Amino acid sequence: MDVTPTTTDLPEPRRLGALARLAPEPMKVVLNWGRRYSLWVFNFGLACCAIEFIAASMARHDFIRLGVIPFAPGPRQADLMVVSGTVTDKMAPAVKRLYEQMPEPKYVISFGACSNCGGPYWDSYSVTKGVDQIIPVDVYVPGCPPRPEALLQGILKLQEKIANESVAERYAAPAAGAVQQPTPGELTSGLVEPPRREGER
């Protein structure tokens, strides 16, 4: 069974200044190099996978040597969000809100089976079937829970993606007919209502 992290590209409307879009090619290489080796991480830990994230940031695995700085003060200071654990429908609007607070360019790693597709709870009425239904994901790390080495491999995959990134393509307008991401209101609609007591309408 292949457990190598995979990458994907989802279209999403993003804004970037005209000067950054029209930067000459050597400047783009320098910009990508800077983004690649100075990733401030915002860990959105929701369950047991968050413990593996903490293990990856400690002395034994030490992902700071890869240019990744763990525990950003908040989403407004972060470049990378690591979503680790089970995303429930009730938590989905908070995940989206914090993602929207991150400055561009921003990246997302989905860490663990629950974050990727719902994991062992995929058939629960209250579990979101993957964080990619809410926000665009750059790298998926499989496992339940994945080992810290898997997160390191996922970070390396993301750094490869950043190194080959074209700023103009990343911030281009979405293609006509592109699938729009659901709004927080749509995510909370149609949820199971609490049982009513006798005499309530």
TrEMBL record:
Cofactor remark from the record: Binds 1 [4Fe-4S] cluster.
UniProt keywords, alphabetically: 4Fe-4S, Cell membrane, Iron, Iron-sulfur, Membrane, Metal-binding, NAD, Quinone, Translocase, Transmembrane, Transmembrane helix, Transport
InterPro entries referenced in this protein's UniProt entry, alphabetically: NADH_UbQ_OxRdtase-like_20kDa, NADH_UQ_OxRdtase_20Kd_su
Region (Disordered): 174-201
Regions that span the bilayer: 37-56
Entry membrane topology: Peripheral membrane protein
Subcellular location: Cell membrane
Subunit record text: NDH-1 is composed of 14 different subunits. Subunits NuoB, C, D, E, F, and G constitute the peripheral sector of the complex.
Xref: NCBIfam families: nuoB_fam, PRK06411.1
Record protein name field: NADH-quinone oxidoreductase subunit B
Originating organism: Streptomyces hazeniae
Organism phylogeny: Bacteria, Bacillati, Actinomycetota, Actinomycetes, Kitasatosporales
Gene designation per UniProt: nuoB
